[in-house]
Amino acid sequence: MLKHFFLIFLFSTSVQAQSLPEGLGSTIEENFSDFESESPFVFNGFIDGRAGMRTQDQAYQRDVSILETRLHTDVEYEGRSFTGRISADFIYDDISKDENQDFETGKGWMDLREAFVSFRPFDFADVKIGRQILTWGLGDLVFINDLFPKDWNAFFIGRSEDYLKAPSDATKLSLFSDLANLDVTYMARHDASRYIDGSRLSFFNPSVMSPMSEFDPAIDAMERNAFFTEDEVALRLYRSFGSTELALYYFDGYWKTPEGQSAIGVAYFPELTVYGASARIPFFKGILSLEMGYYDSSESNDGLNPLVRNSEYRYLIGYEQELFSNFTANVQYYVEQMDDYDVYLNTLPVGMPIRDEFRELLTLRLTYMLMDQKLILSLFNYYSPTDQDGYVRPKVSYKATDAMLFEVGANIFWGEEDRLSTGIDQQTTFFGQFEDNTNVFVGARYTF
Amino acid sequence: MKKILFPILMGLSFSVFAMNANEIVSKAEQASYYQGQDGRAKVTMNISDGRSRQFVILRKNFGKDQKFYVYFQRPSDVRKMSFLIHKYMQKEDDRWMFLPALDLVKRIAAGDKRTSFAGSHFYYEDVSGRDPKEDKHELVDTTDDFYVIKSTPKKSGSAEFAYYKTWIHKGTFIPTKASYYKKGDKEYRQYEALKVQKLDGFQTVTEAVMRDLESGGETKLSYNEVKYNMGLEDNLFTERYLKNPPKQYLK
């Protein structure tokens, strides 16, 4: 019996190997009809719930770091002559629930992320007008020539990485030619980053020489919202030579975070012009990225004005490679070099913590995909050898189905303390100042 | 006379009537990956665990080099993600990925091509084609319908298989089945073409399956809306179209 069964099995597999697939060798010509005309409107979105806790008790912040549910909706119109898109988040945020609705900072019950039309007026030009997410430059979670707004609060409290990019209200004209391509982005008024103002994350405020938290009045920087006078422009000229990609950048506008203080002590966004360049090249078994920029902070008056951040040079070198199957590593070395450092030292008010001339930053990203890419283990680590501080972002993501995603992660800040002139020991460095915000979070997302 | 003629005829018949393994493999490669000057297909992948993917793939030949544009339509969390692959014979491929939520064009390091394509049982290399020069090919069997080719990596350890066998249809040179073996002749992975259609004059596999014989999982793949020689412009395969998909070829 068993022998017979075995024979049948053998026979069936050999038939399978020999049989012809349906239609093979047929001479009948077939044709697919053109795609069925679908509705030009597309509706998509997700529901995302997140909860997180600070891992240490402290007097001046709540224990809960994130507790929110958001409904993200995308409505898109894809017509023959133009595309339009509105995407908005409707949010129940337990921590910021008392905030007034603000479409610039995204505070309140709704965050309008995109609202634009895009079209192609000529073969060589694309235009996109309205609220949009803009990105360029080569850094991985480090930015030099990308002077579009960021949302650092979202990044540090454990929202998904997409939310690090805050929207711009812009007109983007892209021109294409064989010689080079040019992107021209015009913001009719200053688009600030969603900076750390103390309302979600405590930080060190050098002007009062103490940490600021959600129980203090938030930093309320003077906004630059005069249309067409407080405007910004960002340019990118780029082309490829074989596998090498080169780009030149120019930005004229204002610092994205309040890097200046008026004489009466009000934070504001000083003028900023940036010149930059980048190159991306296949190298060894991976991709090498090089980027630099000069930040011309003219209101610092060559360092003579201590109330405005000095001009600086920024450099980045990065390398990414798949080390073994499904395991990718990315390392970056980044430097900020303060211009007019001697002048800075001379004009720095007595008692203020002194910044280094060079701020160096090393980053490491590790990504490991398992279980047919359903399980993703990732780690992003910032470490500054000059500031002696760092920030670690471990995360585990599991895609149970195409629609359902679960995440667990943490945001771990650390830094060495300085003895302030007030006699208090306090972290004053970029990541160190957030040490008491170290948090863990869980999230779930259903996509439809 | 007879004695001399016989070996000469033998030699003749061998060179005229029988193809060697490399020629067969080269014709099969042509039939699988290079049909026409360019082509488009709407691809659906159904993975046995319930997941599915749908994307449009555009391809254009530049001699033996090729450029691919892949635009994802489903599932909705990867909707509008697009990939660009410049495949070269002489060097590593260039690959880019566009993440719409971040407006980010990311360059992807050329990695292991024998890892899952979009989480399916197909490998990246199954989609874009494995370079025949990577393997040593032997014709191990000839049946009425098929050439059976055994391919062994020239550099042992460069792939996860010890060797694989391909059943190549004699009339069309379409590989209708491929079996991958580990050491000890253990078959662990199997490709099978399920349906072939003649489209725009080209014999085209429109349904296929990749089986993982160890886990029992499989991915079924179907090609729809296949068109050849559409006259795709060179500049479709640039960053511009990563960000702004060419609607006329996707709809």
Which percent bin holds the helix content of chain B? Answer: 10-25%
What Rg of chain B, in angstroms, do the CA atoms define?
A: 20 Å
Low-confidence regions of chain B: 12-16
Largest sheet of chain A: 18 strands, antiparallel, barrel
| Average residue-wise pLDDT of chain B | 91
Overall 3D shape of chain B: globular
Strands of chain A, total number: 25
* Helical proportion of chain A, percent range: under 10%
Q: What is the SS-derived class of chain A? A: mainly beta
Query: Under CATH, the topology of chain A is which?
Result: Porin
List the helices and strands and how they pair.
The complex is a heterodimer of chains A (448) and B (251).
Chain A: H1 2-18, E1 29-30, E2 41-54, E3 64-78, E4 82-93, E5 110-122, E6 125-132, H2 152-157, E7 168-175, E8 181-187, E9 203-205, E10 210-212, E11 232-241, E12 244-254, E13 260-261, E14 267-268, E15 271-283, E16 286-296, E17 312-324, E18 327-338, H3 341-347, E19 358-370, E20 375-384, E21 389-399, E22 404-415, E23 418-419, E24 425-426, E25 439-447
Antiparallel strand pairs in A: 2-3, 2-25, 3-4, 4-5, 5-6, 6-7, 7-8, 8-11, 9-10, 11-12, 12-15, 13-14, 15-16, 16-17, 17-18, 18-19, 19-20, 20-21, 21-22, 22-25, 23-24
Chain B: H1 2-17, H2 21-33, E1 38-47, E2 52-62, E3 65-74, E4 82-87, E5 94-99, E6 104-108, H3 124-128, E7 135-142, E8 146-153, E9 163-169, E10 175-182, E11 186-199, E12 202-212, E13 218-228, H4 239-243, H5 247-250
Antiparallel strand pairs in B: 1-2, 1-13, 2-3, 3-4, 4-5, 5-6, 7-8, 8-9, 9-10, 10-11, 11-12, 12-13
